Amino acid sequence: MKTRSKFKIQMLNSIVCPKTKGPLIYNKKTNELISKKGKIAYPIKNGIPILLLEKSRKL
């Protein structure tokens, strides 16, 4: 069972996609940060974005 903690939207002003250096968009339904440019989804665990390519999934 996945644990979902509230992600702080304000964090999006400070972080970018590690691959493209572009903006990330929060997807509340999947609890992921999405890089549209890179077509990558990064998981959020316990309210913390996991911005590692090896933990991401391709869209």
Features:
59 residues; five-stranded antiparallel beta sheet; mainly beta; globular; N-terminal domain of TfIIb
What does this molecule look like?
By secondary structure, this protein is mainly beta. The chain has one domain: N-terminal domain of TfIIb. 0% of the residues lie in helices and 29% in strands. The chain contains no helices and 5 strands. Strands 1, 2, 3, 4 and 5 form a 5-stranded antiparallel sheet that branches. A hairpin with a 2-residue loop joins strand 3 and strand 4. The chain is globular and about 25 Å long.
Short overview:
Strands 1, 2, 3, 4 and 5 form a 5-stranded antiparallel beta sheet that branches.
- Specify the overall morphology: globular
Q: Per CATH, what is the topology?
A: N-terminal domain of TfIIb
* Structural class designation: mainly beta
Span of the ends, CA to CA: 22 Å
Summed up, the domain count is: 1
The fraction of residues assigned to DSSP E strands is 25-35%
User: How do the helices and strands follow one another from N- to C-terminus?
Assistant: EEEEE
State the low-pLDDT regions, or none.
none
Work out the helix count.
Answer: 0
Largest sheet: 5 strands, antiparallel
**CATH architectural type:** Single Sheet
Measured as a percent range, the helix fraction is under 10%
Mean pLDDT: 91
CATH class: Mainly Beta
The number of distinct β-strands equals 5
Itemize the secondary structure elements and their pairings.
Blueprint: E1 25-27, E2 32-35, E3 40-45, E4 48-49, E5 57-58
Antiparallel strand pairs: 1-2, 2-3, 3-4, 3-5
